[in-house]
Amino acid sequence: MTTPKRPHILVTGAAGALAQQVIDQLRDTCDLVAVDFREQVYLGDDIPSYCIDFNKRVFEDLFRRYQFDGVIHLGRIQSSQLTRMRRYNANVLGTQKLLDLSHKYGIKRVVVLSTYHVYGAVAYNPALIDESAPLKAAGLSADLVDSVELENLANIYLWRYPDLNITILRPCNIVGPGVRNTMSTLLASERAPVLAGFSPMMQFIHIDDMADAIVLAYKKPVRGVFNVAPQDWVAYQHALRLCGCKRIPIPSIPPIVPSLILRTLNMRRFPSYLMAFFKYPVVIDGRAFAREFNFKPRRPLQEIFRFYRNNKSPV
Amino acid sequence: MSLATYLKSKLIPADIDKHINRIRKPIGSLGYDPWGYNNEAIKYGFALTRQIYEKYFRVEAHGVEQVPAEGPVLIIANHSGQLPIDGLLIGYALASRPEQPRIPRAMIERFFPTVPWLGNLLNEMGAVLGDPVNCAKMLANNEAVIVFPEGIRGSGKLYKDRYQLKRFGNGFMHLAMKYNAPIVPVGVVGCEETIPAIANIKPLAKALGIPYAPVALPAVLPAKVHLNFGAPMYFDNTEIPEELVTERVETVKAEISRLIDKGLSERKKLF
C-alpha cells in the first residue's frame, strides 16, 4: 500500500504571525516551504524557509525544486510598511510574478490574502458590504492603490486561469497576539488617537480564527472572492475602552484639520491615509464565506479585547 | 457603583430598561448591530424621547397597533419641520406600544454621517444612512424601516407650503415589492409648526455642505403632534413597468394625504 502524497504548499509572508499560525496548522499534513521578502525565519528543520524578493529570478528556482501543489499568498505588504513605490513593486508586480509562476508550474490551488480596506471608508457606505460592491479605496488615498491593484490582478488571473483555483479573502481587522498591523498596535497602546465625534462600527477577527479560515479555504477549492468577518460588531471608541486605552481626541472638523495634524505627526499607528477608516464604517458581510466553507469564528470580541487589556506593552 | 451605573439608574427608569430588553433585536455580543444600533444607548434615547413625546409635543397616535408585529415593514410618512422630529416621534410611538413593541429604523439624510457626534448618536438610536442597499439589507433582516419618500424636499419645505406633499421617490415601492414588505402609511400633523421656516438661504447651505439653511426662529415650538397610522398596504412582486410602480406610489401618497386630512380635522388648536 502506498501512502498518499503529501501536498506541497508555498506559504508567503512567513515572517508574519498569521503565516506562522497557518504553517503550524498545516505542517503535520503538508510539506511546506516558507518565503518572506523581509527576513528569513526559522520554522523548524522540516520547513525550508527563504528570504526572497518575488521579482528576482531565483524565485523561480523554488518552483523548479519543490513542485508545489498550492500557494498561500499572505505576503501582502501592509500600507504602513515601505515606500509607495517599493510596496507597489512587491505587492502588485511581485504577486503577478507569483501568479505567472503558479500558472507555469501547474499549481492547483491559490489563496490570496487581501484586506477589507479595498472597499474604502466613505460616508455613504451601506453596512454589510458584500463582495460585489465597488472598490472605492483607490479614490481615497494613493497609499491604498497597491492593495486594490493586487486584488484586480488576482481577479484577472482568477478568470483567465480557472485551473489555478484562486480564492481571494478580504478579512476585517485581524488582531490578536503577535499581530503587528495598525489596528493591533492601536489596541495594544496605552493611549490611542480618535477623531473627535467619530466612532465607526468595526469588525475584528482573532488571528487564530483567521488562520482557521485560510486553512479551510485552502482545503476546499472554491474559486471566488470572499469577505471574512465574524457576525459581531463594535464601535471603535468602545473597542478602545474595552482594551483599556486612553482615548486622545483629534479635532475632526473641518476635514482638512485632522488630515494636516496626522500628516504632521506621521504616526505609524494612525496614518493619515487610513484616517477615513476611523471616521466612517466599513462593515463587511462575511456570511457567504461562512456558508461556503462552513466557517465559525470561535474567539469572541470580549476575549480579544481582554488580551489587549492584559498585555499593555508594545507588541 | 461607577458613575455610568449611577447615571443609568437615575436616568433610565426600570420599566424602560425592561421594556427595551423585551424587544429582541438581532445584535452582537457587545450590544451593537451592523448599522451601529446599540441596545444600551437606546435606553437613554428612549427615556429622553418619552419626555419630548409625552410632555413637549403631547403626541396623539392613532392606529399604531396596525403595524405588523414581525417581519419586514416599511413605514411611509410625510416629512416636515426642518429637523427629523417626525421620524423620532413615529419611532417612539411604535417602540412604546404596550403590545408587541418594535424598534423601527429610520433612514436618514446622507449628510448626517459626516457630522461629528450627531452621526454616531443617530446610528446608536437605530437611524441608518438612507441608502437603498441599507434598506434592502434591513428588510431582509426583518426590520421595520421608516422612510420619508419626499426626503429633503419634504423636510426643507417652507411654512407656506405646509401639508402639501412633495414628489415621492419610487425606491421604497421597489423594495416593498422585492422583499414582500407591507407598507404602513402614516400621516404626521403638527411637525410643520415646530420649526416654521419662511425662507431657505441656498448659498449658505451650499457653503456649509448642508441640505438647506432655513430662516426660522432658533427654537423648536411645542406644537401638538397627531400621528395617524393607516392599515398595512400589500403590493405583489410582479414585473411591472415603472409607470405602474409610480401609480402604486401614488396610491400610498393618496392614503397619506387622507391620513393628514384626518389629523388636521382632529386637531383643535396648533399648540
UniProtKB/TrEMBL annotation, chain A:
NAD-dependent epimerase/dehydratase domain residues: 9-229
Source species, domain of life: Bacteria
InterPro entries, alphabetized: Epimerase_deHydtase, Lipid_A_modif_metabolic_enz, NAD(P)-bd_dom_sf
Name used for this protein in its record: SDR family oxidoreductase
High-level lineage: Bacteria, Pseudomonadati, Pseudomonadota, Gammaproteobacteria, Pseudomonadales
UniProtKB/TrEMBL annotation, chain B:
Superkingdom of this protein's organism: Bacteria
Span of domain Phospholipid/glycerol acyltransferase: 73-191
Pfam family, one: Acyltransferase
Matches recorded under SUPFAM superfamilies: Glycerol-3-phosphate (1)-acyltransferase
Transmembrane helix in keyword set: no
GO molecular function, one term: acyltransferase activity
Keywords: Acyltransferase, Transferase
Alphabetical list of PANTHER family matching this protein: MONOACYLGLYCEROL_DIACYLGLYCEROL O-ACYLTRANSFERASE, TRANSMEMBRANE PROTEIN 68
Name of the molecule in the record: Lysophospholipid acyltransferase family protein
Taxonomic lineage of the native organism: Bacteria, Pseudomonadati, Pseudomonadota, Gammaproteobacteria, Pseudomonadales
